[in-house]
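Q: Protein A?
A:
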Amino acid sequence: RAFKGVTSSTTGGNIMGVDLKGLFSIHGLFKIFELVLVVITFLLARIGYAGNPPLFGITVDETWLGQLTVGGWLIITPVIIVGIVLDEPMSWKLVRMLIFCMLRK
């Protein structure tokens, strides 16, 4: 007897509820590209470029807001990609994983 999301057969590329074909759809490819851009933006925001500090705005508050937004998106995007792989986009399981990642110290 299989649970919801867990299959007993390995035919069709679906192993234990993991569907890697979802990554190669248009939505999955855009999310992978988005993750690459978010990682690049995060590194530029934290390190800067050629010795110049990152500029998200004029004040320190605007800079912090930009860095925290990019950092938050760096958490949200992989959770959405996991949802695509598990073939359950933004279900209660993914919300629970997101909350766990945010509360983890």
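Q: Protein B?
A:
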Amino acid sequence: MAPGDHVRLGAGAHLGQGGLRHLHSLHGIFQLVLGVAVLGKALASTAFRFLNLALVHLDLALELLDQVLQAYLVFLVLIVLCGQLLQRTVVLSQGLDVILVLLLED
């Protein structure tokens, strides 16, 4: 072995250790990126859960509103039908009054 070859081996060993350091730091950066990705996924999942909860709340509120408005509509139809029934009763009684008056005049 020549003295220059020994220097080359030492430089190669030094470069090998430096490469391991870079690989180790690259591994740390990779773990950090994965951790951020997992955290982002968890936060996005939580945000979607809150959005889903808000949409379910809105759906239930609209269902309640639909039920209340449907009951109100049924109540209005009932009042209109009662009014029509009372109007027909009044018209019938007025007609009978006219017939009774005509019969009594004779």
